[in-house]
Amino acid sequence: MNWKQLFPQFEPELIELIEKEAVQRSFNAGDIIMRTGQYIKSTALVLEGQIKIYRENQDGGEFLMYYLGPGQACAVSMICAIQSHTSEIMAKAEEDTEVLMIPVQLMDDMMNKYKSWYQFVIQTYRSRFDELLSVVDNIAFRNMDERLEFYLKRYTDKTGKKNIELSHQQIADDLNSSREVISRLLKKMEQRNMVKLHRNMIELL
Amino acid sequence: MNWKQLFPQFEPELIELIEKEAVQRSFNAGDIIMRTGQYIKSTALVLEGQIKIYRENQDGGEFLMYYLGPGQACAVSMICAIQSHTSEIMAKAEEDTEVLMIPVQLMDDMMNKYKSWYQFVIQTYRSRFDELLSVVDNIAFRNMDERLEFYLKRYTDKTGKKNIELSHQQIADDLNSSREVISRLLKKMEQRNMVKLHRNMIELL
DNA sequence: CTCACAATGTGACAGAAATCACAACCGTAT
DNA sequence: ATACGGTTGTGATTTCTGTCACATTGTGAG
């Protein structure tokens, strides 16, 4: 996998350093990559696949925050790594996923030496923060129907596909809602010609 | 105001630089410090008072995210400043407030030269991110009664006072709820001896 | 083909919260 | 003292969402 294309902004020496020190790891769809309370010893750059970042509460309820795709990095792992705190979130591989693990010890050095890395880290913070902001917006101000629309839109934006291959139950989990509610709202959306429903698949129109 | 005590971790040279280049500004209680869509040309360090960071939606609904007190800095302004993006949030002075404005141009340099500044920035990101996470937790998983308890607790933690001098309407605004709901929930809390209600003041027991 | 199981549809009901309507209350400026 | 405005209390009603119960449908294994 030629990962360099994903990070064209990195300087040659930085690429060399990463090539030498980072470890590539694979995860299968469904694998838990990081769990709440776990210590973090490296930052992950996503090369391939999709990682789902979500919050879990005591009763097993889940709540999707955002996805990480190729070319992106986990802001939480960066912050935690630098400060050696435990993670407060869960990360699960949505698809088969390849990541590049950069050991914590290198982070400080890289921040100092490589402008492009520094920029990348700032950029990562910024976009994750923004995504969290829009998540807050949605649950604070919007009803489930609008949140569902936003969810579907984000999903197609992320995957590029118009067909969303998820069961109603999976969607309900991500939105911390219940299957029946999602089914009903989807039906309404179908009546308004916004989607077409199939088994295990929703077609966005 | 001897601001250096608030930032004991800063190196002497960094303090000198800030002293030379930063501008101190005062805001009165109620002043809007930053509004959605506004360009940001400096990062603010809070010296005195409290700043409320919140989100606003189209219909004028507000939603409190967190407070910034003395010794803290606005993560959003840092990120925006570095990338010269517009802000996505509102900042309002809760009390009369003193802040130190550090011009954007200095940021890059400070990040490179002063380890303590770099640490401070990372620390700031981390704590704001964590606060946003707990905000998401609250609205995603908790009902209004629990959110209200959290809100009151946070308020007393922040101000140090056991007496919360807010009207029910103000609380409702911060939680994006309605006055009647808050009044009723507070009554219930009073019956459970968790608070004592007065006019414009709530006593936490 | 048929059985089993997962996914989906649907009605009935419960609870939380928003909204409306209005009463009561407190403080203060005149 | 009174009148006014902001604050708080409370009932009635509605909407949204979650929950329970159960029917229906599609799909793949045997």
Describe the structure.
- The structure is a homodimer of 205-residue chains.
- Chain A has 205 residues and is of the alpha+beta class.
- Chain A has two domains: 132 residues, Jelly Rolls, CATH 2.60.120; 62 residues, Winged helix-like DNA-binding domain superfamily/Winged helix DNA-binding domain (Arc Repressor Mutant, subunit A), CATH 1.10.10.
- Chain A is built from seven helices and ten strands.
- Chain A has a four-stranded antiparallel β-sheet. In chain A, strands 1-7-3 form a three-stranded antiparallel β-sheet.
- In chain A, a hairpin with a 5-residue loop joins strand 4 and strand 5.
- In chain A, helix 3 packs across helix 4 and helix 6 packs across helix 7.
- The radius of gyration of chain A is 18 Å and the shape is elongated.
- The two termini of chain A are 34 Å apart.
- Chains A and B meet through helix 2 and helix 4 of A and helix 2 and helix 4 of B.
- Chain B binds a DNA duplex (30 and 30 nucleotides) through helix 7.
